[in-house]
Here is the input.
Amino acid sequence: MTALAALIRRDIKIALRVGGGALIGVLFFLTVVVLMPFAVGPDLALLTRLGPAILWLGALLASLLTLDRLFMADHEDGSLDLIVMSRTPLELTCAAKALAHWLAAGLPLILATPVLGLLLNLDATATSAVALTLLAGTPALTFTGMIGAALAVTLHRGGLLLAVLVLPLSIPVLIFGVAASQAAISGPLSFGTPFSILCALSLVSLVIGPFAAAASLRHGLD
Amino acid sequence: MRLSGSGVRCVRGGREVFSGLDFAASAGEALAVTGPNGSGKTSLLRLIAGVLTSAGGSIGLEGGEQELTLAEQAHYLGHRDALKPALSVAENLLFWQEFLGGEACDIAESLTAVGLDHATHLPAAFLSAGQRRRLSIARLLAARRPIWLLDEPTNALDTSGQALFAALMTDHLARGGLIIAATHAPLGIAARELRIGISE
Here is the structure.
């Protein structure tokens, strides 16, 4: 446990320091959402209708933005060799790294949502619905994205490959995330059904992600 | 404790690097792996560390701790220093100590032993190549493990650093440790030589 706690602390510390990835994701999220009203035009009703989808797309792309560094940074400086050799099972280490990444890069996106909801003419209920679905859904994005990050670890410029590998896997999360938000805002479907599926997707990826990532790391090292 | 390999074969990128390699080292003994560039010195160390998988033969440890694997009882000091530039010298070392676990030694003491006690709070980004190497060596001291796998350990070290490291290695051997080092330069300690990659 000490080892995992130390790893999480280290990764968060690095992400928050100069050159770390934590702020980059939020800034990208901000940029995408701020630009959207200019592209769509000053139609308030349309913005309200598109709002949840825009927030979800922004959060999805922002969380992918820094994910490619998850293992690559450790691979480049040799830390990954020592991590693979360590007494902690690699699956747990992968889970800890993903958790640290979500805390440093995913959680700030959710915290930024209420502010950005204002720009899209979303009321308090709608914003909190989106924030809640993001809270339930972004762990799925991080944990499935981790599989792609582990596959692309030895490739330079693996960032784009990561996006191509991971985006298809994140489509269900996007569908049910937006569906749950829309249901909370305008109905007529119930909020519970898509939200439960969203939670299930997160839980499944929480289980599968670490094993898949650890397996691909063991095979990918050279 | 005795680390041995028999008939070890290594294939990298479809090309056989070496095959039929036998070696053995006992507690308190140092093995210096020598050979021309590309002969597989680093690959051998990485095979022992378990980061690479061998294409044949076996590597085993007798008489170590029963519950731990060979890799879990070994330190690997590679070409790359495993340091994070954003973290300070002490933070880097503390992380590896906590992550590697096991019997620990004081951080400040380890840094003093490698002559880095004046730079404790300096971010690792500002260290010179020799200082980075010294910090990696401090990792070997901060978390105790019986087997040291060293890849060109004296690279970038100045003469006083090399003497200091030789003393640390002698100390480690005296405690019953075991060293396998890939090297071109003399290690500065009594070591048995294992030459690999000589054409028949």
Remarks:
- Strands of chain B lie at 2-12, 15-26, 30-34, 56-62, 74-77, 147-151, 178-182, 192-195.
- The radius of gyration of chain B is 17 Å.
